[in-house]
Structure prediction request, 83 residues.
Amino acid sequence: MERRYLTAVEPVSDYRLQVDFVSGARLLLDIKPYLDKTRFRPLSDPEVWNSAVTNGIFVRFGNVVEISHDGLPAMAEREHTTE
Prediction:
């Protein structure tokens, strides 16, 4: 049995990423604060940004950036605790 945590991912305006989880939860993650980090810098290219897909476990942007299902909520939490 293959585990799946994510059902859909969609890059939306202003570098926000909409992620749907199998639980029915939806996360709207602001990626802008991460664009200056080496790991996420390629996402500033619209072609890379708009290439977001999921295999149920990871969100992948082309062959350049990958974020795990458990990394997404951690990023959202960090976003709210660093302000």
The longest helix spans residues 71-81. The CA atoms of residues 68 and 74 lie 10 Å apart.
